[in-house]
Amino acid sequence: MRFLPVFLDLKAGPVVLIGAGELLRAKLRVLAAAGARLRVHAIDGNQDLGLSSGDAERIEIASGDPLTADLSGVIAIVCAGAGDVGVAMSVRAKALGLPVNVMDDLEHSSFIFPAIVDRGDVVVAVGTGGTSPVVARRVREKIEALLPARIGELAEFIGRFRKSVNERIAEFPLRRRFWERVIDGPIGAAVLAGRKGEADASLKAISDPAEFARADKPEGSVALVGAGPGDPDLLTIKALRALQDADIVFHDELVSSEILDRIRRDTTRVPVGRRVGKPGIGQDAINKRMIEAAQAGQRVVRLKGGDPFVFGRGGEEVEALRAAGIAYSIIPGITAGLGGAADFEVPLTYRHEATRITFLTAHKARDAENVDWTTLTDTRMTVVVYMGLTAAPAVRAGLFAAGRSPETPVGVFARVTRPDAQGAIGTLRDLPELVRRIQGGPAILIIGDVVRHAGSLGRQTPKKTPKQIISDLLDAAE
Ligand code: SAH
C-alpha cells in the first residue's frame, strides 16, 4: 500500500487550494462539502468560483502569489488545474513538510483523494493508489448502493446510547451482541426507515440490556418487496438490499429469474404463487408461513411482481402481519402499467389529451362484468387493464357500453421490460385480434388516445453510453 487511508481533521486549520477553471471549482466543491476552511488562489485571475453567500465565512479568496504566501497553520495544499505552479507548490510544501496533492500528478503528490461515500458519521474512502479514478468511482457506486442512506443516523443513534448501555453491560462480547441485535432487529430497521422516535422509545423500553443481548433468537421481520415487471435493473436500491439481507424469500411465480438471481446465494427461496393452470399454496398458507418464519427469527422477504399494493394482495398480507405483531416494512416496486408505458413509450397522461388514469383488473369475464364501465366514459381517461388477456372481449364490450369509440387506440403489451417483450397496437374494435397476436402473457392493455404516441414496437436496444460501456467492461473483469 503506497497510500494509507487516514482521515484529516478539517477543524485543525485551513486548506490552501490553488488552480484554475473547472478543475479548481470541482475540488472546491468537494472540499467545501466536506466542511473545510479554504484559502483559494485562482491563478487565472477568474475569481468567479460559484460560491454561495454562506460560503464567505469559510472560504477566503487569496490574492497574493501562492509560492510566497504565508503557510503557517495550513493543514494541506491542493492543486487542481494549476500547471507549473502546482509543481512548484509541491516542492515548497514538501520542504515545509506539508501534505500536498497535485491533481493527476502522483509524482508531486504526498496524498491523494479517494472516492468518498458520505453518510454523515459513516464515511467510506475508496482508493486505487492513484492509478484509476474510474475504478474507484465504480467501487464507490457499488458501496453507495449497498449502504442504506441513513447508515450515518444509525451510527449517531448508537453513539447517543452507547455510554448508558455500556454502563449496564459489563462484558465486552455481550455489549457487542447487544448492538448487533439492535442493528439487525426492528430498532435498527426503524432508524434506517427514518422513524427515530420509535427507535428511541423501543431502545429505552429494553429493561434488561444484558438479557436482551443474551436472547438466543434474533427478532424476525417481513419486508413486502415490489420486484417490478421483470427487468432486474428496475429493482429499487432498497429492494436489492432487502434481497441481499433476506434469510428466506417467498416469491410469486411472476418474478423473473434474473431478479431471483439477485437474491443472496444461501437464502432459501420458496415459490408460493399461482401459475397458470396450477394453484399456489393459497393466501392463508402464505400468510401463515411468513409469520412462522418471522417468529422463528428470520428476515423474511415477500417478493411480488410489480408493486405489492397494486393487484398484489399486499394489503391482506400487511393486515395478517399486523395481527400477528410481526415487524414489517413495505418497499414499493414499478407496477406493470408503468413499466409497459415506459417500455413502449406510451405517456399515460398528456397535456389536455389525457388527464386521468385508471388501473383496473379484469381477471375473468365474470370480473369484467362486475366492473362499473360507466365510470370509464371520460375520453381523457387512460385505462390500464391488468389480467385482461382472456377477458379482452368483455373489456371491449364494457367500454363500448360506456360509449367509447371503436376507434379508441389500444395497446396490448406483454412481458414488458423483459428481453422478450412484445406489443400490438390497434383500435378497441380490433382488441381480440390484437390479443391473438401476442404470444403469451403476462400482459397489460392500455386504452386511450395516448396510445397514439407510442414509440416503435420493434424496441431498439438502447445505445450504450460510454459510461455504461466502461462499467460493463469492469463488471466483466471482476
Ligand atoms: N402487482 C403486480 C400486478 C399483479 S397482477 C404489478 O404491480 O404489476 C398480474 C398482472 O400484472 C398480469 O396479469 C399482467 O396484467 C400484469 N403484469 C405483471 N407483470 C407484467 C409484465 N412483465 N408485462 C405485462 N404485464 C404484466
Report on the structure:
The structure is a single chain. The chain is α/β, with parallel strands linked by helices and 478 residues long. It folds into four domains: 15-113, Rossmann fold (3-Layer(aba) Sandwich); 151-215, Helicase, Ruva Protein, domain 3 (Orthogonal Bundle), CATH 1.10.8; 221-334, Cobalt-precorrin-4 Transmethylase, domain 1, CATH 3.40.1010; 338-453, Methyltransferase, Cobalt-precorrin-4 Transmethylase, Domain 2, CATH 3.30.950.10. The chain has helices spanning 21-34, 84-96, 133-146, 151-168, 172-184, 186-192, 196-204, 209-214, 237-245, 257-260, 283-295, 314-324, 336-343, 365-370, 392-401, 431-437, 466-477; strands at residues 15-19, 38-42, 59-61, 76-80, 100-102, 115-119, 122-126, 221-226, 248-251, 268-271, 299-304, 327-331, 356-361, 381-386, 409-414, 422-427, 443-447. Strand 15 (409-414) and strand 16 (422-427) form a beta hairpin. The chain starts with 14 loop residues before the first strand and ends with a helix. The relative contact order is 0.07. The mean pLDDT is 90. Bound molecules: S-adenosyl-L-homocysteine. S-adenosyl-L-homocysteine is lined by residues 229-230, 254, 304-307, 310-312, 335-336, 340, 386-387, 413-418, 441-444.
